[in-house]
Structures are given as structure tokens and as C-alpha cells.
Amino acid sequence: MTAATHSSLFPQVPESADAVLDGLDPEQREVATALHGPVCVLAGAGTGKTRAITHRIAYGVRAGIVQPSSVLAVTFTNRAAGEMRGRLRQLGAGGVQARTFHSAALRQLQYFWPKAVGGELPRLLDRKIQLVAESAARCRIRLDRNELRDVTSEIEWAKVTQTVPADYPAAVAKSHRDAPRDPAEISQIYGMYEQLKRDRSGIDFEDVLLLTVGILQDRHDIADQIRRQYQHFVVDEYQDVSPLQQRLLELWLGDRDSLCVVGDASQTIYSFTGATPDHLLNFRTRHPDATVVKLVRDYRSTPQVVHLANGLLSQAHGRAAEHRLELISQREAGPEPAYTEYADEPAEAEGTARRIRDLIAAGVPAGEIAVLYRVNAQSEVYEQALADAGVPYQLRGAERFFERQEVREAGVALRGAARAGGNDSLLDDAEDLPAQVRAVLSTKGWTTEPPAGSGAVRDRWESLAALVRLAEDYARAKPGATLADLVTELDERAAAQHAPTVQGVTLASLHSAKGLEWDAVFLVGLTEGMMPITYAKTEGQVEEERRLLYVGVTRARLHLSLSWALSRSPGGRASRRPTRFLNGMRPGSVAPGARGAGGARGAGGVERGSGGRRKRRGPVLCRVCGKTLTDAGEMKLMRCEDCPSDMDEALYERLREWRSDQAKELGQPAYCVFTDKTLMAIAEAVPGDEGELAGISGVGGRKLERFGADVLAICAGQELEGADEED
Q1: What whole-number distance in Å separates Cα of residue 330 and Cα of residue 78?
Q2: Contact at 8 Å (CB) between 369 and 507?
């Protein structure tokens, strides 16, 4: 597997139904040609499951066996549904409905509500957390911010498992669920939430499924109408189906069996939301005559990565483990996974940033690198380290590309230029399509060089630059294409949510990385208590944590790095241990069940990432209240976030202006000079000499040598040499 070529970015539509099957391996071809009766596809990570099922749909459509409008393909994210629509369009099977469960149900609910209930559909709540907070207050139950979020998740779990408020405590006990508050209190809040929602004529996302199920159960005429419309169903990621979604699927199907499901029990990582692999594992029991196809040829990852992934699952327990798939890599050999032990979390983040910088220097695009962690709270220290290293990054979960304001504005401008054609003076000197796009987008903020610093301005430029790169790829793939052709392509991609890549290292939680892949993946923070997470107590919960790590490992195509830190903060007690899931695989460890499992720390060639013997430092204390600091941002400021700040605002603004000038001169983002937090710390401390400046977190030896004199001069209120001439 190689980086996408221009022909793969814009493939030609297959000339015939048989041509749709070209390039499929034997098992994928079995999936594509199994068009009748129930079909179950057990597909391991990287085995081309989306390719198999989209070619199955396209083959059926192109062969005239199924009508596009009669197919409903459902999955779990808008991104996955958009990718499926894009692939089907490229295969000549436009018109097929590919949606999430919620999107498909909402569409049906909006259409049939006037007929089934009368009047307009109640207002859909954008966010339920405010209403949950009000419900708790009315019940005289005090929740902090984290508890509020957790209780909201509990209500969502109860609804997708079809549990009413009164039954919630019993359901929690039966499922061995670790409730964030007393189940009786959550039951009370849940009941009040439902009451307030009814009083205000609102519904939430879970109600969309519940109400659709209710209508289809009660109104056979409406159910029959939907069944006449949709006669063939495909369900992706079937291991993540909740009981409520399964019930909706059964009502869509009726007594028919034209169903194809795809999944992998070893990638079940959302049980906390009500997902269960039981429907996938019991499929053959419910459908004895089903065709079952196993996809185990891994086209994504090298043999070294696949070997580690298989090794993780070989130690698994439980029903999902009994049905695990042994992957077989189809790629050439690559580098061995790197295991690195660090003294503390800041050292781990700094070491990771250095390795990423080296990979980028060696030619790996920043957009093909990811740092994956267990919880989102771990991201800050990596954001800081990457910023200090001058490495661009993006947080997973940001606004979808085609919904960004600047992208919508760019689309309007390109559409206008395409309509004007030769009458648009902007295009007078543009000789080809990319030049035309660059000319139009220059009016919207695109420049040949990126702006200094981060934030909204840089984000806007990155979006426009992604459109410019897309235009260049499109022109190379389709010589002679016009601006109007490109606008049509953009409209179709927007409809399918098929976005070009914004360059930058991805920072994401393991859960949000599901379904994605990169050339290089850094799995960080792999210590007991984080992987598995502390609150995973039952065997089932621990096994789900193992599967989560498996998902992280299988995101990597070529480079894979696994790391952990022995303490949280510099100078802390080195009491942490690497995750048990790597026992028997990382150097120096012993497989479970063997004597001395875990191994001596650092033995067996484990690479240490602290760069030799690290100078031990004592705990970092808040200079206001004296509390020990553990948060990376607070450690940089040397105070708790909530403690009063004595920052010199005028000094801070002078430092920001100086930083901006330095960044322009160096041709780098502003955060590569100093981050905002470091400037705040300097403005609060007002250092008087190099020793005091060097004691501020974020001011290393290199930056002290390069910028120290200027910073100290600014802190002393002096004018910098040459400032007047520049002004």
C-alpha cells in the first residue's frame, strides 16, 4: 500500500458490473457477489470491509439486480456514511441511501409524524446537558461538571437499552455497571429530565430512535410503506449495535432476510453506550442459512504491526476473544514497533514530539501521523510539546471540513468565478485550474505562505490551503478540467462529507480514532490505571480496554510507537508500571502465567526516552497557595488555574508583539517562539536575570540563548535595538 495517487483520488467509474469486481481479493469477491439472503461479514482491522460492502452494493446496482433507491446502508458516524456515499458514487451507484441510524430514523420520523401523530415533530434538543442540569437542580441533587456529563451519559445508556427511569437501578445492578452517582438519584434525575422534556415539547437523539420504533410497531401501514421503499439492508460496524438500534433494524426488515452485516467483535469498544457484539456473534443462530465470509488479509499494516495486534488478542478472554480473527499482513516488512519508557509525562510528550519532528524531516507528512491517548485530558501536554517543537497539529473532533465558515465562503466564491468564466478579471492571468483557484481564494485569505502563529487565522488558512491542494490533485488527475468541473466535484464531496486532508499531526483519543488510519501512530500513556483505565474492574471491562488498545495498534500502517512514563510529574515517585497488555511482547517482559510476569523495569533492551540520566527535580508547587501542581498548563504558570494572577497585562502585550515580529522574521508560527502560557508565566514572574528566566517552564537552554536578552530587556522596560527604525 502506498500514498494515494491522483488516479486513486479521482478514480474512473467502472465500465460494467464485472469491472466493479476487478481488484477484489477472493474473500472480498465472495462478499460482493453474495447478493441474496442473509450475509455476515467478519472483517478484521485493515481488511477492506468498506471496500467489500460498497462493491457489493455497486455490483448489485450495476448488474440490475437491485435498484439504488431500494438499498439502505447504515453505519454509526456521519464521516463513515459520507465515505460510503463517496465510494458508491465513484463506483457508479449514486442514489443509494447511506446514513447513520439516527439520520435514517429522523428522516422517516419527520416524514411520517404528521400522519402518525399529527402536527409538527417536537423540537430536537441540540444538547441535553443543560436540561439534565436543571433536572438535577429540581431534584435538589448537586452535580459538579464531570458528574453532570457522566449522568447525561447514563441517561443515554438507559434509553438505548430501553430502560425506563424506574427500572434504572435494577438495570445497573444486573449489568454490573459502575454508576457515577447513587442509582436511585440518577433514576430521579432521569425521570425529571423526561418530564421537563415532555412539558417543553422536545425530543432528544435517543427519542428519535424510540419514537420511530414506536410508530413502526403501532402503525403497520407506515411500516409496510417503509418496507416497500427499502428492500435491501447493509449494516456496517455491526458489533456496535445497541438493543434499540437492533429493534429498529428488525422493524425495517419485517419478515425478509435481505440483510448484510459487517463487523469485528474484537473492535467492540463502545459497550458503555449500550453497544454489544451479541447481535453479530448470534447472527448465525438467528439466520442458520446465512452466508458467512471472513476477511483476514490485512492491507493496512506491516507484518510487524499485525504481529503485535495478533499477540494482544491471543491473551484475551471472553466470548469476543473466542471469535477473534487472526490477521495476515499483505504488506512488505517494516520497522519493529518501538517501546519507550520515560521518567515522567512531560518527558514522554517531549520525546514523542522529537520523534514526530524526525519523521516529518524524513518525509512522513504531518497529516499521516497521530498521537493517541486513553482520555482527552492527556492531550494538553502533547499540544504543548508539539507547539514547542514547531510541529503543526489538529485535535480530532473539530468541526467537519465542509461546514467550516471559510470553506462555505470559498465555495460561493469559486461558484461565482465559474459562472463568470472569462468575464472575471481575477482569472485574467491564471493559466490553469490550480492558478484560477489560487487567484479566487487569495481574496478569502489564502496566501502562498502560512500565517505565523496558531488560532483562528491559521485554521482558516489551513482550510483554504487544503482546497488549493485538492484543485492541484484534481487538475493532474483530469487534464482539461474546468473550474465548473471542480465546483461540481466539491459539491458532491460536500454532500458526501468527503473532505480533503488538513495537514497537521492528529491528536485523538483511542475511541475517536476508530475507523481511521495513519502511516505513523504514537500510543502514549500506556500505564496501569490508564490502560486499562482505573475504573475497569470486571473481566469484561478489562477485556474491552484490551480491545481498545488493539484498535489503537491497528490504526498504524508502518510506524508504531508505544510509550509510558514512570511518574506523572518531574521529580515524582517512579511508581507506575507499563500496561499488563504488553506483557510478553515488549522487551524485558514475561507473558501472563509465566514466572516473574512483568519483568524487571528497563531490562531486555527497553529504550529509555529521557535522553540519559535525567536531573531529578522536586514537586512543582503553586507560588500562590503552595499546592502541588500536576497539570501541565498550571505547572507552566507555576500556579493553580483558579489562583489569582498578578500578571502585568502591558508587559504581556509587549511580549506578544515582540513574539509576532520574531515569528515573522523566522518564518515560523508564533508558538514556536514561545507559547501563550509561557508568555503569561514570564509576564507574571517578570524575571530580572537569566537564572530567573531559565526557571520558567517552556524556556529551555536553546530558547534562553536565542531570545533571553530580548525578553529580559522587555521585562526591564527597555526599548529593543532597531525597534524605532522598524516602526
Answers
A1: 29
A2: no
Q: Is the pTM of this model over 0.90?
A: no
Would you state the cell numbers that stand for residue 144, as one nine-digit string?
A: 459538579
State the Cα–Cα distance between residues 638 and 351, nearest whole angstrom. Answer: 22
**Angle, CA of 67, 94 and 368, to the nearest 5°:** 135
346 close to 294: Cβ distance less than 8 angstroms:
no
Q: ∠ at Cα 653 (647, 655), nearest 5°?
A: 90
CB 583 within 8 A of CB 589: yes
Helix %, strand %, coil % for the chain, to 5?
Answer: 50, 10, 40
What sign results for the dihedral spanned by CA atoms 216, 220, 224, 225? negative
For the segment 265-314, what is each residue's pLDDT rounded down to a tens digit? Answer: 888 888 877 788 888 988 888 888 888 999 999 999 999 999 999 999 98
Assess whether pLDDT exceeds 90 at residue 215: yes
Query: CA angle, 411 as apex, 408 and 417 as ends, to 5°?
Result: 145
Length of the chain in residues, anyone?
727
Q: Strands 232-235, 71-75: parallel, antiparallel or unpaired by DSSP? A: parallel
Residue 245 CA from chain centroid, whole number: 23
Q: Helices in 46-128 by DSSP H: which ranges?
A: 49-62, 78-90, 101-116
pLDDT in tens, 144-181: 766 788 888 889 889 888 899 999 999 888 887 778 78
298-513-92 Cα angle (round to 5)? 60
Closest CA to 302 of 86, 602, 517: 517
DSSP letter string over 572-606?
------B-GGGTTTSTT---TTSTTTT--TT-TTP
Sign of the torsion formed by the C-alpha atoms of 238, 239, 245 and 251:
positive
Q: Please give the pLDDT value at position 557.
A: 95
Helix-helix angle 78-90:49-62, to 10 degrees: 50
Instruction: Give me the mean pLDDT over the 213-242 stretch.
Output: 92
Inter-CA distances, 71 with 86, 92, 156, 224, 664, Å = 15, 14, 29, 16, 55
Interatomic CA distance for residues 543 and 627, integer angstroms: 37
Q: Which residues contact 337 (CB under 8 A, 6 or more apart)?
A: 304, 305, 308, 560, 561, 562
Among 313, 382, 398, smallest CA distance to 585 is for: 313
Give the separation between CA 481 and CA 227, rounded to whole angstroms: 42
pLDDT(104) > 90:
yes
